[in-house]
Structures are given as structure tokens and as C-alpha cells.
Amino acid sequence: MGQEAPTLYIVGLGLSPANITAEALEVIRSVDVVFLEMYTSKGPAEFMDQLRSIRGDLIQVSRRDLEDMNSEIIMRVLEGGRNAALLVIGDPMIATTHAVIAVIAKRRGFNVRVINSVSIVCAVLSQLGLSPYKLGPVATITYPRMGVLSMRAYEVLSDNLIRGLHTILLLDIKDDGSFMSASEAVELLKKMEDNGKLGIISKDLAVVYAARIGWGNQSIKVSTIEDVPNIGETPHTIVIPGLLNPVEQEYLVNVLGADEELIRRHMAFINKMVKRGPLV
């Protein structure tokens, strides 16, 4: 009977050190080699301190290591007969990068196990009191590439709004590793509106601006496209609600401090979008 193939553990750390599960800790302590990537997202500084206290031999890997080099740095460990863990902020399979790494490992004959944790998608909905049953497709607002501005986030937002669904808009990461701010994202949405002309980027739209969800200094503010609040350092996330039930409305107003008149205008605007339907 041959020896069992080595295992790659793709381990979600959650959004803060408090989110690290007992299962994740066991894997981090037991595998032969531990890698960490912090370019698809980032955590507070104490995350690194916590991880270093668990494994002093932690190896930090870059986008180039995992994407351009096809994760060869990890595959070499597995080929040497050792088990490895790749630690990622949030839940592992929110980023396509990690799914690709799992595929590469399986194709080479290695075992793969995914250790789940809290993702920005579930955490932000929970913090905003919005129903996950009404969440539409998630999109990322991206920087223009080679002079071309992708309209994908705008199209997803439009489709969600006409169905009365909530939209989570994740924000892009620059090549230098810095994160897009909410104000940059809004300027790009306005440019998309100029191009698409669907009338969805409106002063009547309630927008939730969230920063550092899950961190000790998280910030959440409800405002409009025209008035982007100061929510501090990145990472930022933008959520645009769809139709709101009474409990969701009460939560936005009474827990998050949203202006009641804005929520009324928002509901009238979304109802108009739902009745109008797609412009085709």
C-alpha cells in the first residue's frame, strides 16, 4: 500500500484574530510548512503578531508567487512529501485565486482540504442587518486596465436593483498592493453611469459605506453617492440595498443611524426601478 499523498490545507482566517477557529489553529500547528498571503485582502497588524506567535517559521507569499508562478513555491513542498497550509484572510474560496491553487494541487495528485471561516460577504450583511435571502450577485469595482473601464459592477448593480436585491460591491487592489477607497469607487461608478446611462447612480440611492469589517475599529456609515463619508483606512466595501423590509429599514435607521428621509427616498427609487424593469 503506497503512502498517502501530501495534503494542501487552504485555511480561512476570518476577518480578525478573534475569528481564527480551533480547526484552523490545529492545522497551522500541525502541518510541515505554513504559507500566508495578504494581497487578496488584509487584516489588522495584530493578525501578523498572532500568526507569528503560533508559527515563527511562517512564509509570506506574493501575488507573483501564487498567480504568475502557478504556486510552485507550495507545490515543491507537496512534491517533497510534506503537508502545507496556505493561510488567507476571510473565507478561502471567495477569491478565485485560491480555487485555482486547489485545482493545480489536485491535478498533481495531492489532497486538498478547505478550512472555512468568516467572509466579508456574510459579515457585512450581518453587520448591516440585511437579509442574505435578498442578496444578488456580488461584483468588484475595478480600476481601468489598459485604458478600459470595466462596466461589470455597474451591470450587476443594475440587474440587482431592478429585482429589488441587495448588492455588495467589493473594491479593487492596485498592483502595488494598496486598496481602492470608497471615494475612488464612487467616482468610477459615476463614470460608468456616464457610459451606461441607465439612471441607477442617483442622489436618491442609499449607500452603505463600510470599512474594516470585523476589525476592532470597523466603521459603517449610511449616506448617498453624492456625499461619501470619511470611514478611515481601507479595506472598504460598498453595499447598495435593494427593497427593504420593515425590520431592515428599522435597523438601518435605529442601529446604523441612517436618515429616515433618505431611506424613504431610497425605497421610492428602488420601487420605481423594479416597476421599470430592464432597459433592453
From TrEMBL:
Coiled coil: none annotated. Its EC number is 2.1.1.98. Pathway: Protein modification; peptidyl-diphthamide biosynthesis. This is Diphthine synthase. CDD domains: DHP5_DphB. The lineage of its organism: Archaea, Thermoproteota, Thermoprotei, Thermoproteales, Thermoproteaceae. Residues 7-228 form the Tetrapyrrole methylase domain. It comes from Vulcanisaeta distributa (strain DSM 14429 / JCM 11212 / NBRC 100878 / IC-017). S-adenosyl-L-methionine binds at residues 15, 91, 94, 119-120, 171, 236. InterPro entries: 4pyrrol_Mease, 4pyrrol_Methylase_sf, 4pyrrole_Mease_sub1, 4pyrrole_Mease_sub2, Dphthn_synthase.
